[in-house]
Design brief:
Helix content is 45%, strand content 16%. The longest helix has 22 residues. The chain is of the alpha/beta class and 265 residues long. It has ten helices and ten strands. Helix 1 runs parallel beside helix 3.
Length: 265
Amino acid sequence: MGRDDTIAAMADEILTSIADGIATVTLNRPAQRNAMNGAMLTGLRSAFDDLEARRDVRVVVVRGAGPAFCAGMDLKEMESRGGARDPEGDVVGVLQRVERSRHPTIALLHGDAIAGGCELALHCDLRVMAETARIGMPLARIGMIVPFVLGQKLVEIIGPAHTRQLLFTGRPIDGRRAYEIGMVHQVVPAAEVETAAQALARSVADNAPLSLAGMKAVVQRAVSARPAVAHDDLDAAALRARQSADAGEGRRAMLEKRKPIFRGE
């Protein structure tokens, strides 16, 4: 457990390292605020697949390179496809893979976690956040609907009342507010967030591996009824929204840094 090992990622978009039982998975598109494109999603899934069987890993820290944790889906890639492809379907599968990891996971939120970035953090077991970072789901601001299973995750963690506020306003909240509503487990000054996340990771990694895996399985089993909820009609509504003129206008407005003009069509 004393060695430091760097694992070659499938793509440069994801970097993975291991030291003293703590694996660190880094989203590595800092110039794009770690927005999720196809290569990043493939790399993230591959990284968690590779870590699954490693006996020298006790806990996984997920973080972003550069100033942001993750800005959500890559809107340029999404707009280039005109909503024809289902990027949410891709991200849902990858997030569920992160959630199913047998290792406890910690999201280190040193910077903004928006939309898909917010959901990536929520699909980790624990979250440590800087006071100055922001977290939110601004999909209503670009004419889209949250995929059902991701909305379900929000309700599971912060309850329906705070989920409504977060989704209806589309406004991100800071670390203090996120802590108040139970969205994150610890909030600290920005200068201390790395130290705090590493201390939490160390406290987890020092525990018995079989206990960690078993207790994570208990929690996962306790919420295992979630997939039984029917949501085909909601998936269809999300698809219509993603392919709507409003969604195209919303994506372009976000990329052009202007206020969108929505027409309800």
